[in-house]
């Protein structure tokens, strides 16, 4: 089998500032995949396609036919930290790790097989949000002492540096988002392990549980930060409705109340994360996506 990276992955990595580093990883990917399969004594069945925007997933099986999934991501994505988070959750609300050892030589993760073609996005939005909330509650646990993950303050400090260079068309919103971020990190109410990039598409159907999350970008901080990404899910549908700004605010408030999160802190993190994502989309040339994100942030 030839382990060529899907074009969706190639395009996505090419948009990032670390594209040169990722290009080198992409060239090595076929060899890394072969080595990872051999090291874990599993056999490849097929590459998951179209796949994600940040990793290669190969559907594999053990010698006895037990299915599994092998995930390979660039080193800058810190797969070791993803492995540590998944191991800490122990399969409770998240995909289960089948090999807890981290092999720096290939950086691959061997995980239980889920159903990648069935995510929460296959459900009506109201039902999907209800299931998403239940999954998030399982993930929000205290991190272990001496944990390896960065904090929300650290992650958003890095993002703020880029946001300060936002173009004129996004300058006012960027300044508002930066001010909100500074106020939020000044007095964080809690320090929990968070998914970091939680949305409906990151929750897949499983065998041992109806829904399990995948693809964390783990970070330690408050629940409102994690919930902020979910608040803008199915953004095109939200923008297309006649509810507009009022509908966006109601959605944020409903999510906050359902998961017992402070409304204003959720609104603040939702604005910051939408503006930061919009700025990155502009920089990558994805203007339509950027316009949607910035319009949504302005509504809040």
Automatic annotation (TrEMBL):
- Respond yes or no to whether keyword Secreted is given for this record: no
Q: Does the keyword Transferase apply?
A: yes
- Signal peptide, first to last residue: none
Q: Could you tell me the Gene Ontology terms of the biological process aspect for this record?
A: secondary metabolic process
Keywords attached to this entry = Kinase, Transferase
Output the Gene Ontology terms for molecular function: kinase activity; phosphotransferase activity, alcohol group as acceptor
Q: A Pfam family this protein belongs to?
A: APH_6_hur
Mind telling me what this protein is named?
Kinase
């Amino acid at each position: 089998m030839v382990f060529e990276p899907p074009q969706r992955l190639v395009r996505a990595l090419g948009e990032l500032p670390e594209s040169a580093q990722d290009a080198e990883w992409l060239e090595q990917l076929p060899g890394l995949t072969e080595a990872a399969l051999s090291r874990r004594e599993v056999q490849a069945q097929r590459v998951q396609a179209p796949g994600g925007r940040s990793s290669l997933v190969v559907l594999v099986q053990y010698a006895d036919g037990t299915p599994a999934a092998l995930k390979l991501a660039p080193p800058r994505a810190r797969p070791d930290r993803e492995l540590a988070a998944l191991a800490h959750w122990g399969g409770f609300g998240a995909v289960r790790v089948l090999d807890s050892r981290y092999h720096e030589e290939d950086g691959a993760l061997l995980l239980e097989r889920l159903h990648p073609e069935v995510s929460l996005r296959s459900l009506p939005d109201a039902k999907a949000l209800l299931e998403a909330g239940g999954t998030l509650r399982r993930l929000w646990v205290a991190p272990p002492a001496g944990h390896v993950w960065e904090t929300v303050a650290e992650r958003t400090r890095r993002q703020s540096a880029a946001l300060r260079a936002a173009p004129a068309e996004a300058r006012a919103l960027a300044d508002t988002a930066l001010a909100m971020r500074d106020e939020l990190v000044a007095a964080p109410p809690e320090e929990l392990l968070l998914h970091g990039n939680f949305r409906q598409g990151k929750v897949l159907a499983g065998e041992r549980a109806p829904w399990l999350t995948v693809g964390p970008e783990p970070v330690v901080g408050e629940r409102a930060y994690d919930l902020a990404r979910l608040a803008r899910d199915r953004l095109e549908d939200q923008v297309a409705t006649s509810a507009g700004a009022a509908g966006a605010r109601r959605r944020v408030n409903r999510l906050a109340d359902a998961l017992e999160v402070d409304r204003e802190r959720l609104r603040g993190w939702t604005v910051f994360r939408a503006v930061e994502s919009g700025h990155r989309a502009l920089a990558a040339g994805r203007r339509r996506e950027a316009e949607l994100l910035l319009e949504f942030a302005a509504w809040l």
